[in-house]
Amino acid sequence: MEGKNRRKTGALQEEKAAAYLTERGFRITERNFRSSQGEIDIIGYDGDYLVFVEVKYRSSDMYDNPLEAVGSAKRKKICRVADYYRYTKGIGREVPVRYDVVGIWREEIAWIPNAFPHVYGRG
Length: 123
What we know:
Layout lengths: L1 H22 L3 E9 L2 E9 L2 E10 L13 H18 L7 E9 L2 E5 L11
Parallel strand pairs: 3-4
Antiparallel strand pairs: 1-2, 2-3, 4-5
């Protein structure tokens, strides 16, 4: 039952993040994009930038700050999925790309544009 509750909580927090971004002019084009490499929570445009957004939620102080929860392995995975997304959608290198994180901690929401650079590599 715990896994179901975590998914439900995650979906609710992603809804909050999507509403927050949309209110600030972000145009969402895709949610929960999946490939064999992994998943990206929100994809869309902020101005001219194609943006891949990771949503992180923490409910208590017992855990890391949600903005610090996107470690190097997760960044690599997001970048691989982003590359695959761009390939499948025919989005060329001329389109600028950004990787953002939306952190939700209790009821606070923080949007960190350009949270990390593109990470190359397979590992």
